[in-house]
Amino acid sequence: MDSLTVTDGRRVEHATLEWMRLRAVEAGGKEKQSPETVIRWFKLHRTVIYKWLRMFRSGGWDALKSTKAPGPESKLTQAEKNRLGKLLMKNPLQLHFDFGLWTLEMVRELIRRKFAKSISIPTVTRLLTEIGYSRQKPLQRAYEQNPERVRLWKQEEYPAILKEAKRERREIYFEDESGFRSTGSGGTTWSRKGQTPIVRKTGKRYGVNSVSAISRRGKLWFMLFEGTCTADVFIVFLKRLLRNNRSPVTLIVDGHPTHKTKAVRHFIASSNGMLKLYFLPPYSPELNPDEQVWNNAKHFLKRKSVGGKHQFVAEIRRHLRSLQRQTEKVSRFFLHPDVAYAM
Fold first, then answer.
1. How far apart are CA 100 and CA 269, in angstroms?
2. Which residues contact 80 (CB under 8 A, 6 or more apart)?
3. Which of 37, 36, 49, 38 is nearest to 9 (CA)?
4. In sequence order, which ranges of the chain are alpha helices (DSSP H)?
5. Are strands 220-225 and 207-215 parallel, antiparallel or unpaired?
6. pTM: predicted TM-score of the whole model, two decimal places
7. In the list 174, 201, 206, 222, which could disulfide-bond 309, CB 3.0-4.6 Å?
8. How far apart are CA 268 and CA 217, in angstroms?
9. What's the pLDDT tens digit per position in 242-292?
10. Those residues with Cβ within 8 angstroms of residue 238's Cβ, 6 or more apart along the chain or in another chain
Protein backbone atom coordinates (compact mmCIF):
# COMPACT_ATOMS: atom_id res chain seq x y z
CA MET A 1 0.00 0.00 0.00
CA ASP A 2 1.32 3.44 -0.92
CA SER A 3 2.19 5.14 2.38
CA LEU A 4 1.43 8.56 0.88
CA THR A 5 -2.20 7.68 0.25
CA VAL A 6 -3.17 6.26 3.63
CA THR A 7 -4.35 8.01 6.76
CA ASP A 8 -5.39 7.15 10.27
CA GLY A 9 -8.77 8.86 9.80
CA ARG A 10 -8.22 11.82 12.11
CA ARG A 11 -8.87 14.29 9.28
CA VAL A 12 -12.05 12.57 8.13
CA GLU A 13 -15.40 14.09 9.13
CA HIS A 14 -17.13 12.40 12.06
CA ALA A 15 -20.19 11.31 10.08
CA THR A 16 -18.06 9.87 7.29
CA LEU A 17 -15.72 8.10 9.69
CA GLU A 18 -18.68 6.55 11.53
CA TRP A 19 -20.03 5.15 8.26
CA MET A 20 -16.57 3.75 7.43
CA ARG A 21 -16.31 1.99 10.81
CA LEU A 22 -19.75 0.42 10.50
CA ARG A 23 -19.20 -0.61 6.87
CA ALA A 24 -15.74 -2.03 7.54
CA VAL A 25 -16.80 -4.20 10.48
CA GLU A 26 -19.93 -5.31 8.61
CA ALA A 27 -17.85 -6.31 5.58
CA GLY A 28 -15.51 -8.30 7.77
CA GLY A 29 -18.41 -10.09 9.43
CA LYS A 30 -21.25 -10.64 6.94
CA GLU A 31 -19.19 -10.58 3.77
CA LYS A 32 -16.23 -12.52 5.23
CA GLN A 33 -13.73 -10.01 3.88
CA SER A 34 -10.26 -10.01 5.46
CA PRO A 35 -9.33 -6.95 7.57
CA GLU A 36 -6.46 -6.18 5.19
CA THR A 37 -8.79 -6.13 2.19
CA VAL A 38 -11.38 -3.99 3.94
CA ILE A 39 -8.90 -1.40 5.10
CA ARG A 40 -7.52 -1.00 1.56
CA TRP A 41 -10.99 0.04 0.39
CA PHE A 42 -10.86 3.09 2.61
CA LYS A 43 -7.13 3.82 2.21
CA LEU A 44 -6.55 3.77 5.97
CA HIS A 45 -3.63 2.41 8.03
CA ARG A 46 -3.92 -1.31 8.69
CA THR A 47 -3.85 -0.74 12.47
CA VAL A 48 -7.15 1.19 12.30
CA ILE A 49 -9.29 -1.83 11.34
CA TYR A 50 -8.04 -3.86 14.30
CA LYS A 51 -8.89 -1.00 16.66
CA TRP A 52 -12.42 -0.92 15.22
CA LEU A 53 -12.79 -4.66 15.63
CA ARG A 54 -11.76 -4.44 19.30
CA MET A 55 -14.32 -1.65 19.81
CA PHE A 56 -17.03 -3.81 18.23
CA ARG A 57 -16.20 -6.87 20.34
CA SER A 58 -16.33 -4.88 23.56
CA GLY A 59 -19.30 -2.59 22.87
CA GLY A 60 -21.18 -3.80 19.81
CA TRP A 61 -22.45 -1.50 17.04
CA ASP A 62 -23.01 1.42 19.42
CA ALA A 63 -19.30 1.51 20.18
CA LEU A 64 -18.60 2.31 16.52
CA LYS A 65 -20.87 5.36 16.42
CA SER A 66 -19.40 8.85 16.67
CA THR A 67 -19.71 10.68 19.95
CA LYS A 68 -19.29 14.36 20.65
CA ALA A 69 -15.94 15.06 22.25
CA PRO A 70 -16.31 16.53 25.73
CA GLY A 71 -15.38 20.20 25.93
CA PRO A 72 -12.92 21.67 28.38
CA GLU A 73 -13.90 21.59 32.03
CA SER A 74 -15.91 24.65 33.06
CA LYS A 75 -14.02 27.37 34.90
CA LEU A 76 -17.03 28.07 37.14
CA THR A 77 -18.77 25.63 39.45
CA GLN A 78 -22.53 25.15 39.17
CA ALA A 79 -23.04 27.22 42.32
CA GLU A 80 -20.97 30.04 40.80
CA LYS A 81 -22.96 29.86 37.56
CA ASN A 82 -26.21 30.15 39.50
CA ARG A 83 -24.89 33.17 41.39
CA LEU A 84 -23.64 34.77 38.17
CA GLY A 85 -27.10 34.42 36.63
CA LYS A 86 -28.63 36.28 39.58
CA LEU A 87 -25.98 39.02 39.47
CA LEU A 88 -26.61 39.65 35.77
CA MET A 89 -30.29 40.36 36.50
CA LYS A 90 -29.16 43.56 38.22
CA ASN A 91 -28.35 46.84 36.53
CA PRO A 92 -24.54 47.04 36.10
CA LEU A 93 -24.61 50.45 37.79
CA GLN A 94 -25.75 48.72 40.98
CA LEU A 95 -22.53 46.70 40.91
CA HIS A 96 -20.31 49.78 40.50
CA PHE A 97 -19.81 49.63 36.74
CA ASP A 98 -19.81 52.84 34.69
CA PHE A 99 -22.17 51.58 31.98
CA GLY A 100 -25.81 50.49 32.31
CA LEU A 101 -25.78 47.59 29.84
CA TRP A 102 -23.90 44.32 30.21
CA THR A 103 -21.04 43.76 27.74
CA LEU A 104 -18.81 40.69 27.44
CA GLU A 105 -15.88 42.61 28.90
CA MET A 106 -18.00 43.70 31.88
CA VAL A 107 -19.21 40.14 32.51
CA ARG A 108 -15.60 39.00 32.36
CA GLU A 109 -14.65 41.66 34.91
CA LEU A 110 -17.62 40.69 37.11
CA ILE A 111 -16.39 37.09 37.18
CA ARG A 112 -12.92 38.27 38.11
CA ARG A 113 -14.29 40.41 40.95
CA LYS A 114 -16.76 37.91 42.40
CA PHE A 115 -15.03 34.59 41.80
CA ALA A 116 -11.35 35.57 41.40
CA LYS A 117 -11.17 33.72 38.08
CA SER A 118 -9.89 34.94 34.73
CA ILE A 119 -11.56 33.64 31.56
CA SER A 120 -11.43 34.57 27.88
CA ILE A 121 -14.12 36.48 25.99
CA PRO A 122 -15.14 33.40 23.90
CA THR A 123 -15.52 31.46 27.16
CA VAL A 124 -17.73 34.26 28.55
CA THR A 125 -19.96 33.92 25.49
CA ARG A 126 -20.30 30.15 25.93
CA LEU A 127 -20.93 30.57 29.64
CA LEU A 128 -23.72 33.12 29.11
CA THR A 129 -25.38 30.82 26.60
CA GLU A 130 -25.12 27.91 29.03
CA ILE A 131 -26.88 29.80 31.84
CA GLY A 132 -29.69 30.93 29.53
CA TYR A 133 -28.62 34.43 28.51
CA SER A 134 -28.62 35.86 24.97
CA ARG A 135 -27.67 39.16 23.37
CA GLN A 136 -30.76 41.38 23.26
CA LYS A 137 -31.77 44.93 22.46
CA PRO A 138 -33.30 46.47 25.61
CA LEU A 139 -36.73 48.05 25.52
CA GLN A 140 -36.90 51.78 26.14
CA ARG A 141 -39.06 53.16 28.95
CA ALA A 142 -39.38 56.77 30.07
CA TYR A 143 -37.95 57.63 33.47
CA GLU A 144 -41.13 59.61 34.16
CA GLN A 145 -43.39 56.59 33.72
CA ASN A 146 -45.19 55.55 36.90
CA PRO A 147 -45.25 51.73 37.12
CA GLU A 148 -48.16 51.83 39.56
CA ARG A 149 -50.26 53.86 37.12
CA VAL A 150 -49.45 51.33 34.40
CA ARG A 151 -50.49 48.49 36.68
CA LEU A 152 -53.77 50.22 37.56
CA TRP A 153 -54.47 50.87 33.88
CA LYS A 154 -53.96 47.23 32.90
CA GLN A 155 -55.66 45.60 35.87
CA GLU A 156 -58.45 48.04 36.79
CA GLU A 157 -59.04 51.01 34.49
CA TYR A 158 -59.01 49.32 31.10
CA PRO A 159 -61.07 46.30 32.27
CA ALA A 160 -63.67 48.81 33.54
CA ILE A 161 -63.67 50.60 30.14
CA LEU A 162 -64.04 47.24 28.40
CA LYS A 163 -66.96 46.26 30.62
CA GLU A 164 -68.67 49.60 29.96
CA ALA A 165 -68.16 49.19 26.20
CA LYS A 166 -69.76 45.75 26.23
CA ARG A 167 -72.69 47.00 28.26
CA GLU A 168 -73.27 50.02 26.00
CA ARG A 169 -72.31 48.18 22.78
CA ARG A 170 -69.49 50.59 22.04
CA GLU A 171 -66.55 50.04 19.70
CA ILE A 172 -63.18 50.63 21.41
CA TYR A 173 -60.46 52.33 19.37
CA PHE A 174 -56.90 53.29 20.25
CA GLU A 175 -55.73 56.54 18.59
CA ASP A 176 -52.27 57.96 17.94
CA GLU A 177 -50.52 60.57 15.76
CA SER A 178 -47.22 60.23 13.94
CA GLY A 179 -45.10 61.93 11.31
CA PHE A 180 -43.27 60.63 8.25
CA ARG A 181 -40.08 62.37 7.10
CA SER A 182 -38.05 62.03 3.92
CA THR A 183 -34.92 62.08 6.08
CA GLY A 184 -35.95 58.96 7.97
CA SER A 185 -33.35 56.21 8.17
CA GLY A 186 -33.40 53.71 5.32
CA GLY A 187 -33.18 49.94 5.38
CA THR A 188 -30.17 47.71 4.76
CA THR A 189 -29.06 45.58 1.82
CA TRP A 190 -26.40 43.01 1.00
CA SER A 191 -23.28 44.05 -0.90
CA ARG A 192 -19.67 43.00 -1.28
CA LYS A 193 -17.41 43.89 1.63
CA GLY A 194 -15.85 47.29 1.18
CA GLN A 195 -18.31 48.23 -1.60
CA THR A 196 -21.08 50.24 0.04
CA PRO A 197 -24.04 50.50 -2.38
CA ILE A 198 -25.44 53.92 -3.29
CA VAL A 199 -29.17 54.68 -3.49
CA ARG A 200 -30.04 57.87 -5.34
CA LYS A 201 -32.69 60.01 -3.63
CA THR A 202 -33.72 63.63 -3.49
CA GLY A 203 -31.87 65.95 -1.16
CA LYS A 204 -35.05 67.88 -0.42
CA ARG A 205 -36.63 67.63 3.01
CA TYR A 206 -40.35 67.08 3.30
CA GLY A 207 -42.83 65.18 5.38
CA VAL A 208 -46.46 64.53 6.18
CA ASN A 209 -48.27 63.99 9.48
CA SER A 210 -50.93 61.42 10.19
CA VAL A 211 -53.49 60.29 12.73
CA SER A 212 -55.10 56.86 12.96
CA ALA A 213 -57.22 54.64 15.19
CA ILE A 214 -57.52 50.85 15.36
CA SER A 215 -59.86 48.41 17.07
CA ARG A 216 -59.43 44.84 18.27
CA ARG A 217 -61.65 43.70 15.40
CA GLY A 218 -59.00 44.92 12.93
CA LYS A 219 -60.65 48.16 11.87
CA LEU A 220 -58.24 50.92 10.88
CA TRP A 221 -59.08 54.54 10.08
CA PHE A 222 -56.46 57.13 9.20
CA MET A 223 -56.04 60.68 7.96
CA LEU A 224 -53.00 62.45 6.52
CA PHE A 225 -52.57 66.19 7.08
CA GLU A 226 -50.07 69.04 6.79
CA GLY A 227 -48.74 70.98 9.77
CA THR A 228 -49.30 70.24 13.44
CA CYS A 229 -52.18 68.30 14.95
CA THR A 230 -54.36 71.11 16.26
CA ALA A 231 -57.74 70.74 17.92
CA ASP A 232 -59.43 71.50 14.60
CA VAL A 233 -57.48 68.73 12.83
CA PHE A 234 -58.25 66.27 15.61
CA ILE A 235 -61.97 67.13 15.52
CA VAL A 236 -62.06 66.54 11.74
CA PHE A 237 -60.65 63.07 12.37
CA LEU A 238 -63.19 62.42 15.16
CA LYS A 239 -66.03 63.36 12.83
CA ARG A 240 -64.76 60.91 10.21
CA LEU A 241 -64.39 58.19 12.83
CA LEU A 242 -67.98 58.63 14.02
CA ARG A 243 -69.27 58.77 10.45
CA ASN A 244 -67.66 55.41 9.68
CA ASN A 245 -69.05 53.65 12.75
CA ARG A 246 -72.69 52.82 13.37
CA SER A 247 -72.16 52.05 17.03
CA PRO A 248 -70.95 54.50 19.72
CA VAL A 249 -67.18 54.87 19.97
CA THR A 250 -64.85 54.74 22.95
CA LEU A 251 -61.55 56.34 21.96
CA ILE A 252 -58.38 55.82 24.02
CA VAL A 253 -55.68 58.44 23.48
CA ASP A 254 -52.45 59.65 25.03
CA GLY A 255 -52.09 62.85 27.04
CA HIS A 256 -51.24 65.16 24.14
CA PRO A 257 -52.50 68.71 24.94
CA THR A 258 -54.62 68.72 21.77
CA HIS A 259 -56.75 65.92 23.17
CA LYS A 260 -57.61 68.00 26.23
CA THR A 261 -58.53 71.31 24.62
CA LYS A 262 -61.83 73.05 25.29
CA ALA A 263 -62.85 72.64 21.64
CA VAL A 264 -62.37 68.85 21.79
CA ARG A 265 -64.26 68.60 25.08
CA HIS A 266 -67.12 70.61 23.58
CA PHE A 267 -67.25 68.36 20.51
CA ILE A 268 -67.38 65.23 22.66
CA ALA A 269 -70.19 66.72 24.76
CA SER A 270 -72.14 67.55 21.58
CA SER A 271 -71.93 63.95 20.34
CA ASN A 272 -74.80 62.90 22.64
CA GLY A 273 -72.86 59.95 24.02
CA MET A 274 -71.67 58.68 20.64
CA LEU A 275 -68.06 59.42 21.63
CA LYS A 276 -66.21 58.90 24.90
CA LEU A 277 -62.55 59.74 25.46
CA TYR A 278 -60.19 57.99 27.88
CA PHE A 279 -56.49 58.66 28.51
CA LEU A 280 -53.56 56.25 28.71
CA PRO A 281 -51.13 56.59 31.65
CA PRO A 282 -48.56 59.38 31.07
CA TYR A 283 -45.29 58.52 29.30
CA SER A 284 -46.56 55.09 28.23
CA PRO A 285 -46.68 54.98 24.41
CA GLU A 286 -45.91 51.26 24.45
CA LEU A 287 -49.41 50.64 25.86
CA ASN A 288 -51.02 51.94 22.67
CA PRO A 289 -51.61 49.26 19.98
CA ASP A 290 -51.83 52.00 17.34
CA GLU A 291 -48.05 52.42 17.69
CA GLN A 292 -47.75 49.15 15.73
CA VAL A 293 -49.44 50.80 12.74
CA TRP A 294 -46.70 53.41 12.54
CA ASN A 295 -43.96 50.83 13.10
CA ASN A 296 -45.37 48.82 10.22
CA ALA A 297 -45.71 51.80 7.90
CA LYS A 298 -42.24 53.19 8.62
CA HIS A 299 -40.69 49.76 8.10
CA PHE A 300 -42.43 49.68 4.71
CA LEU A 301 -41.01 53.10 3.80
CA LYS A 302 -37.46 51.93 4.52
CA ARG A 303 -37.72 49.65 1.50
CA LYS A 304 -39.07 52.34 -0.84
CA SER A 305 -37.14 54.85 -2.92
CA VAL A 306 -39.32 57.85 -3.74
CA GLY A 307 -38.61 60.77 -6.04
CA GLY A 308 -40.46 63.60 -4.34
CA LYS A 309 -43.10 64.66 -1.85
CA HIS A 310 -46.07 63.77 -4.06
CA GLN A 311 -44.86 60.19 -4.48
CA PHE A 312 -43.81 60.05 -0.81
CA VAL A 313 -47.33 60.91 0.38
CA ALA A 314 -48.91 58.63 -2.22
CA GLU A 315 -46.82 55.65 -1.04
CA ILE A 316 -47.82 56.22 2.60
CA ARG A 317 -51.51 56.52 1.70
CA ARG A 318 -51.34 53.43 -0.52
CA HIS A 319 -49.72 51.36 2.21
CA LEU A 320 -52.17 52.46 4.91
CA ARG A 321 -55.11 51.72 2.62
CA SER A 322 -53.66 48.29 1.96
CA LEU A 323 -53.28 47.73 5.68
CA GLN A 324 -56.85 48.91 6.14
CA ARG A 325 -58.07 45.95 4.09
CA GLN A 326 -56.00 43.46 6.11
CA THR A 327 -58.20 43.29 9.21
CA GLU A 328 -56.59 40.08 10.49
CA LYS A 329 -53.15 41.66 10.33
CA VAL A 330 -54.34 44.76 12.20
CA SER A 331 -55.94 42.52 14.84
CA ARG A 332 -52.59 40.80 15.34
CA PHE A 333 -51.06 44.12 16.39
CA PHE A 334 -52.90 43.54 19.66
CA LEU A 335 -50.85 40.37 20.24
CA HIS A 336 -47.69 42.40 20.85
CA PRO A 337 -46.58 41.69 24.45
CA ASP A 338 -46.89 45.32 25.53
CA VAL A 339 -50.52 45.61 24.39
CA ALA A 340 -51.80 42.05 24.84
CA TYR A 341 -53.75 43.38 27.86
CA ALA A 342 -56.13 45.08 25.40
CA MET A 343 -57.29 41.85 23.75
1. 48
2. 115
3. 49
4. 14-29, 35-41, 46-59, 78-87, 104-115, 121-130, 147-152, 158-168, 231-243, 262-269, 291-302, 309-325, 327-332
5. antiparallel
6. 0.59
7. 206
8. 23
9. 999 999 999 999 999 999 999 999 999 999 999 999 999 988 889 999 999
10. 251, 264, 267, 268, 275
Pairwise CA distance, residues 89 & 163, whole Å = 38
Domain ranges in the chain? 14-64, 78-130, 147-184+202-342
In this structure, CATH architecture of domain 147-184+202-342: 2-Layer Sandwich (3.30)
Pairing of strands 249-253, 220-225: unpaired
Q: How many other CB atoms are there within 10 angstroms of residue 21's CB atom?
A: 24
d(CA 11, CA 51): 17
**How many alpha carbons lie under 13 Å from residue 11 in its C-beta half-sphere?**
5
At position 126, the amino acid (one-letter code) is R
Confidence band for 90, pLDDT divided at 50, 70 and 90 = confident
Phi-psi group of 288: left, alpha or beta (phi > 0 → left; psi -120 to 50 → alpha; rest → beta): beta
Contact assessment for residue 215 and residue 172, using Cβ atoms and an 8 Å cutoff: yes
Compute the distance between CA of residue 80 and CA of residue 115 in angstroms, rounded to an integer. Answer: 8
What is the per-residue burial (b if ≥16 Cβ within 10 Å, else e) of 159-185?
A: eebbeebeeeebbbbbbbbbebebeee
